[in-house]
User: Fold this.
Amino acid sequence: MTPENTSVVILAAGRGTRMRALTDHTPKPLLKVGAHTLIEHHLKKLRAEGFKKIVINVDYLGAKIIKHVGDGKRFKLDIQYSNESDTGALETAGGLRKALPLIASDPFLVINADIFTDFDFAHALAPLSEQADLQGRLVLVKNPPQNPKGDFLIKGANANIERSGDTTSAQSRTFSGIAVYRKSLFSGLPPGKQALGPILKTMVANQQLDLIEHFGEWNDVGTPERFAQLNAEISH
Assistant:
């Protein structure tokens, strides 16, 4: 996999309920961090790393995202939209299943629109092992204050996860919102609304997903307070 031939899905359909009143009239991906919106930070970074094909799923105030981002020409990207406004937001698994016809590569990269990070997206593109029947790769981060228990319990030794002490003990990590998935993970799902979290938890427990860890900048822009703090840090 190389950036040039890898499709990227940016998940931008969420309502951003915890961000109200900031998101009452503005979709969260269009909130500005510094001089650019959250989604623009992703698009500019993806283009700089060599990615070209982008799919954005939209629902809440999706027309504003489509109008603001357009077809991608100003970013030198090819951007298509998977619009969920006719059904309402399908959650992550349902949204990715709906978007499959627009995704040109297998596997493909997925990024949450509402994170801010310096992660090198191309770093996630190492080939998945066919022998191990891996269905994808998750980028994990150390648990932030707002998620002290983490999302996944990592058991046993994993060369890509920094460990301390006995490698037989379990440690928890938080999902960064960045992942690589095979299409087969979603193609067998029924159409409609479906969460991805429970699917990922089962797959991590069954060692069906590769795990890598990011130690650099990562922010989940989930509340007005964290959004204000991020902007304060960017301005200095």
Summary: The helical segments are 38-48, 62-69, 91-99, 184-187, 197-205, 224-234. Residues 27 and 156 are 40 Å apart (CA to CA).
